[in-house]
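Hello,

Following up on my earlier ticket. Below are the two sequence lines again, exactly as submitted.
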Amino acid sequence: TQLLEQSPQFLSIQEGENLTVYCNSSSVFSSLQWYRQEPGEGPVLLVTVVTGGEVKKLKRLTFQFGDARKDSSLHITAAQPGDTGLYLCAVYRSGGYQKVTFGTGTKLQVIP
Amino acid sequence: ETGVTQTPRHLVMGMTNKKSLKCEQHLGHNAMYWYKQSAKKPLELMFVYSLEERVENNSVPSRFSPECPNSSHLFLHLHTLQPEDSALYLCASSRTGNYGYTFGSGTRLTVV
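Thanks for your patience. The regenerated structure is below:
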């Protein structure tokens, strides 16, 4: 079993549609991060959420951390082809250094 | 140059070859990481270096040998690899605290 399960695994939508992807776990986390990875590149950090129930917005992207800090969602409004990529959630594991565990990922394709 | 730079971007090697992957960061980060990304699998943490000391080795086969000569450079030495080692190898760096990773663009490795 994976620590972080993301759904759906794949999503193909038309430009202009809205979508939501999810990151779920049975564990409680102090914070959670979302990354986007474009084809042929490494993941890029989008946001970190730290408080249960927290909502953060980044242009057309809205991130929410669950009240119990076990799950998170990413909502994209009016998707554009530039949003195409692999969306990864990740959590910081405690230790003397920063150790991040990644979820299974959601592969998004936005068709023009 | 800013960010995390990985070279080469693409590498094809035979199972009897020896090659090295290079990673460089000038962000002032004090931790560096190697991750393996295979199709249909989450990002797998391979090695962690904190302040140039290896602090984690996630049961990686000995045919992968990391080296961190200073806080800005990280290498992954490869020898007698197997075809199943073909993957995208990502380097990342971070600083103390929950600030997330900065990833390089990766090396696409194919073992033939």
